Amino acid sequence: MNSLELAQALARALDEKQASAIRVLDVRKTSSITDFHILATGTSSPHLRALANELRARLKELGVPGYRSTGTPESGWVVSDCVDVIVHLFSPEARAYYDLDDLWKDAPVIDV
């Protein structure tokens, strides 16, 4: 599975758990550390926890080794580094505050 297929599979998994405002950003031309960023919003701490658990289960199902996660649902931002794909799960407040959408506004958005 290449990085684009992984990004699309993870975005679909988040969509199945009702994450909102899911964006898959192609940063291959502007980043040396990853190919794609996925930004998604959960409605509450329990919802963020469910999204993080679904992401973990999907990565295991896909056989993706060695990913790392940091942050907690209570903090409003959970980041999972899957090397070629980095997934950011936000509360609405954290997403607005950190505004990664604006940081990568020039990155092409990939359809899921």
Q: Can you tag this structure with a few keywords?
A:
alpha+beta; Beta Polymerase, domain 2; 6 strands
Q: Looking at this structure, what is the CATH superfamily?
A: Beta Polymerase, domain 2
Tell me the strand percentage band: 25-35%
Task: Count the DSSP helices.
Answer: 4
Per the CATH scheme, the topology name is Beta Polymerase, domain 2
CATH class: Alpha Beta
Please give the domain count. 1
Q: Order the strands across the largest sheet as they lie in space.
A: 3-4-5-2-1-6
CATH architecture: 2-Layer Sandwich
> Describe the biggest sheet?
6 strands, mixed
Strand segment count: 6
Mean pLDDT: 95
- Ranges with pLDDT <50 over ≥5 residues? none
Query: What distance separates the N and C termini?
Result: 15 Å
SS-derived structural category = alpha+beta
Produce the secondary structure layout.
Blueprint: H1 3-16, E1 20-26, E2 36-41, H2 45-62, E3 68-70, E4 77-81, E5 85-90, H3 92-98, H4 100-103, E6 109-110
Parallel strand pairs: 2-5
Antiparallel strand pairs: 1-2, 1-6, 3-4, 4-5
Can you offer a commentary on this structure?
This protein has 112 residues and is α+β, with helices and mostly antiparallel strands. The chain has a single domain (3-110), classed as Beta Polymerase, domain 2 (2-Layer Sandwich), CATH 3.30.460. It is built from four helices and six strands, in the order H-E-E-H-E-E-E-H-H-E. Helix 1 packs across helix 2 (45-62).
